Amino acid sequence: MDFSLFLKALVIGLSIAAPVGPIGLLCIQRTLAHGRAIGLFSGLGAALADACYGAIGAFGVSAVISSMVAARVPLALGGAAFLGWMGVQLLRAPAATQARTAQDAATPRKAMLSVFMLTLANPMTILSFVAVFASIGSGHASSSGAAVTMVVGVFLGSALWWVGLSTAVSMVRHKLGARVLQSINRLSGALLLGFAVFQFSALLSR
Questions:
Q1: Contact criterion met (CB below 8 Å) for 15 and 161
Q2: Which residues cross the membrane (predicted)?
Q3: Which residues contact 91 (CB under 8 A, 6 or more apart)?
Q4: Is 69 helix (H, G, I), strand (E, B) or coil?
Q5: Lowest mean pLDDT among 18-22, 132-136, 169-173
Q6: Measuring CA to CA, how many Å separate 85 from each of 31, 99, 103, 152, 181?
Q7: Nearest-CA neighbor of 181 among 94, 82, 86, 85?
Q8: CA dihedral 32, 92, 48, 124 (to 10 degrees)
Q9: What is the pTM for the complete model shown?
Q10: Left, alpha or beta for 21 (phi > 0: left; psi -120 to 50: alpha)?
Q11: DSSP helix/strand/coil, 167
């Protein structure tokens, strides 16, 4: 394994995951509401989606890239609708049933799958991976081994961020009362709705 290439991909995976957006917000909210495992698996769903897009970019699967870019509008609409639905669910959840909010996150598998699908709903990410991988791949042997190294690095870098985030949030989870958790749920719901509205408006303005 080319260690320098792996390290570059690791940093890329970490930098992609780190910015706080709807996925980070979901990971934080789910960790507070359901515990570290659910928050972690939610983040790993995003890491897995990043790895899938990374693989498409690293191996240069042009047919898949073209089809995903062509379907970017319906995919983005689906992602915005899903964000809006989760936002409404959090806003409507009463304090007495906080533990049952966001039912899509009731199990690790469902938590991972929901965020995996949500992350895949942004096909323009493929173009970013194609450009980045073309850049970091220059100077390295163009082979399947190098592509695998980059994909593994991206996944582990992204996963490292989600492990750290879910662990940090879980450390303060039991110090928060029911009223604070309810406020966090409602704030999270409002922010998710905001992300959904922004995505819808961006699509309509094109």
A1: no
A2: 6-28, 40-65, 71-91, 112-136, 148-172, 184-204
A3: 185, 186, 189, 190, 193
A4: helix
A5: 132-136
A6: 19, 18, 11, 32, 20
A7: 94
A8: -130
A9: 0.79
A10: beta
A11: helix
Q: Exposed (0-12), middle (13-18) or buried (19+): which is 57, by Cβ within 10 Å? A: buried
Which stretches of the chain are DSSP H helices? 3-17, 22-34, 36-59, 62-70, 72-92, 108-120, 125-137, 144-173, 178-204
Please provide residue 204's backbone torsions phi and psi, each rounded to the nearest 5 degrees: -70, -25
- Tally of residues, the chain: 206
Residue with tokens 């570059």: 8
DSSP state of 8: H
CB 154 within 8 A of CB 50: yes
Q: How confident is the model at residue 67 (pLDDT cuts 50, 70, 90)?
A: confident
For the chain, give every domain's residue range.
3-204
162 or 129, greater pLDDT:
162
- Burial degree of 110 (CB within 10 A; 0-12, 13-18, 19+): middle
Condensed to tens digits (0 to 9), the pLDDT of residues 145-191 reads: 777 888 899 899 999 999 999 999 999 888 887 777 778 878 888 98
CA angle 46, 52, 49 (to 5 degrees): 15
